[in-house]
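Support request, please re-run this one:
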Amino acid sequence: MAKRTAPKARASRKPAAPRTPRQVTFTKPQAVRARFDAAQTSDDSRHWANADSLSANAALSPEVRRIIRNRARYERANNAYVHGICVTKSNDLIGIGPRVLLSTGDAAADRSIGRAWYDWSWNVRLADKLRVATEAKFLDGEAFGLLFTNPRLPDRGVQLDIRLVEADQVASPAYDYQQTVSPDGSLVDGIEMDRHGNVIGYHVLKSHPGSNYLIGINEYDRVPAEDVLHWFRSTRPGQHRGISELAPCLRLTANMRRYTEAVIRAAEIAADLAAFVHSNSPAATVDDVDPFAAIEIEKGTLTTLPEGWDVSQLKAEQPTNTHQAFTRTILGEIARGVNLPYHKAAFDASSYNFSSARLDGSLHDQNVRVDRDELERSWLDRIFRAWLDEALLVTGMIPANLPPAAEWNWTWVWAGNDGIDPVKEANAVETKLSTLTTSLAAEYARQGKQWDEELRQIAAERQLMGELGLALGDRPSQIVVPGLEQAQAAETPGIQAAADSYRPTAGMREEAERGLAWRREHGRGGTAIGVARARDIANGRPLSLDTVERMASYFARHEVDKKGEGWSAGDPGYPSAGRIAWALWGGDAGRSFVTEILDSQEADA
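Re-run finished. Output below.
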């Protein structure tokens, strides 16, 4: 067993003298700050005096929104430009109203349900209400609609209806219209929310605060959120009420009206005979005249003045030289504030060229698409779902054996706008269709039409024209009257030329049609340019001299394709891609056509 030894005793030592506390010097760290001129206190700090750090709901208090709403409505009623801007925005956004394009898996059911929806929307004047809601959102900052059952609608149809209410009527009277948020945060100026922030109800006053009849002004109905449509543009997190889109422009619109009135007053003063009677003579040498006395002078009258007095006409300054420039500048700033191109706000495109109009128009179209997306999500989709819920209860309105409504797909089709240059637009669409970069459904949707309905109409028209002895070319608009072409050819034998344009021959049209048919069947041959050329030839469109020269260049380059496999009938792979492309350009008849024209041009030179 190991023997443990006791630990050695520690040597004793004297207690240490108390230490003097060490002096520690703390150095203040150098502050590192970002330098923003706008954050500095300077002479222009008064400009930022009204800047605050309020929350979104606190900044948009009921009183602030009420004042802005009232002023915006006043400008709409008294400013011609603001009135026109409101109408333009609602007409551009809503137009004649949207149509629904359904996809349930049954084409016949889609058409039947779409027609029922159209009839209902016509009965409730949906397009009119959407236009009013658009103006309310613009002026008031928000639009409200209530879904309710209207017994005045047809008994055998859906009796769902929409009642619009102004933003003034959605309020919390318990807080005297002053407080924005309740102490527990569950009520924001007429909007109830659960603890997760989901809107569950709205307080709608039974009487408008501005009504002549103020009976029960503080009484309200609590409407469930599923029965309320609320449309506004949120610009800050946590925002629950909207502010007028005209708010940044109200001072500008007021200044524009004041300036115009000042110009008119100056013109009136200059047109009137306004003068001062004055004297620089000593008082002893002039007759007494009452100060500030008014003298009526009739037109065409000569009169005398008291001794020692003289008259001088008042010359009012007339700022007409700057009035137009001032108005244009202010209106341009207003247009930017309300997200409109200048020519839309002014209803004047006299200073625009084609490119500028196209650019501004495309930017405006993008803004319209964004607004429509908001409207579809916040209003139209909810209205259509509520309509479907009731339509399913109406006998025979919804066809049987369809998938559940939750599995249906739908899109909203809006009325299209005419292009600035219809010919260029049509050519662009034709090129995109031939290169498979768009579809008929997409192009018809741009015009606010349903592609299947349009194709059925075109088919019916073609059938009727066939019964009447009329024939249609490759394009629906190309109508060929039998015998007319032969009569024209008899009058002008050979190649027809007019204004440096040449009409394709019958052999060229036949070859081009053959090339188009081959390409559809085999999926090869030619380019988008070749397809476009074949369509022009097949439809008998006159060809310019420049086009003729390009055709001649093509034939010269591709003559060698005739030596390839699949060129002649009976060869393996017939028709080859080269043979199809050759046909698209008019074939051998086209080559003879352009050769004759160029030889004639050379002889004349």
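The longest helix spans residues 354-391. DSSP finds 18 helices and 16 strands in the chain.
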